[in-house]
Amino acid sequence: MILRIFFLLLMFSPFTASAEANPELWPYVKERLFQDRVINEADFLTISGPRRASSGAQVPVTIKLDTPKNIEMKNVFLIIDANPTQLAATYQLSKHSQELDLSTRIRMETDSFVRVVGEDGNGKLYMSAIPIRASGGCSGYMDVHDPELTTDLGKILAKTKDRFLTTRIKHPNFTGLQKDLDSGGYIPRWIVEEIIYVSNEEVLLVAKNRISMSQDPYLKFKINSGTKESINIMVRDTKGNGFTKDVSI
Q1: Which residues pair with 160 in a beta bridge?
Q2: 11 lies in some domain
Q3: In a domain, 68, yes or no
């Protein structure tokens, strides 16, 4: 409990907004998410992004995984040390996504290390991390009354090119930390929490999102060469809304 209180104080300290990425946060984040499990460095799992983001609300990051033949990866966790909710997304992998090349856009509240942790089928963990400078992405103002935020709610924009599938989902993705200036209260959390990609009745990839994903969630990944004809995209948000789209390859 003491560690948790200390960690929360670090998160909401007024000095964190202008601070550089703090490596001292990771032990507390690691303990909460993975307890005492060993995490290994791995050259087959990497994350990349800008050193300084132009907007804390739309920070591009790319995860690459080239799984060795003697390992089968099960999950990939996207983590932002200094965000109010550190786990940004969990990507559940299949045999079709062991060679992963995935790009997405995250929200960052302040400068932070951004990490990718991979978990194999035996529970072994691997990690890569980078520092990124950004601010204001999680609690920045959004006009809850702006009709543009919900026009075409759930519309899935999708395209395929050079064996990559790019999707963008029309959704405000309210974090629960943004203030409504009219009422003075917080806008309730409302996010896209699950995206499932299926081809030929086989799951390719499942994205389990948290509040650190950007407005109008964006995801681009490389399609396995064995994927057939079309991909069905299924989306669910925290209000129980469901959206779907079929994409020809």
Answers
A1: 165
A2: no
A3: yes
Kindly state whether residue 6 falls inside one of the protein's structural domains: no
Please answer whether residues 63 and 46 qualify as being in contact, where contact means their C-beta atoms are separated by less than 8 angstroms: yes
Q: State the residue range of the domain holding 223.
A: 19-248
Number of domains in the chain: 1
Helices (H), 46-146: none
Beta-bridge partners for 126: 40, 118
Q: Report how far residue 9's alpha carbon sits from residue 153's, in angstroms, rounded to the nearest whole number.
A: 36
Residue with tokens 């800008």: 50
Which residues lie closer than 8 Å to 36 by C-beta, 6 or more apart? none
CATH number at residue 69: 2.60.40.2470
Q: Which two tokens stand for residue 26?
A: 């990771």
Query: CB-based burial of residue 45 (10 Å sphere; 0-12 exposed, 13-18 middle, 19+ buried)?
Result: buried
- Give 116's strand partners: 78, 128
Report how far apart, in Å, the C-alpha atoms of 76 and of each of 87, 97, 117, 197, 223 are.
11, 11, 6, 16, 17
Whether 12 maps to a domain, the answer reads no
pTM of the prediction? 0.89
pLDDT in tens, 166-222: 999 999 999 988 887 777 788 899 999 999 999 988 999 999 999 999 999 999 999
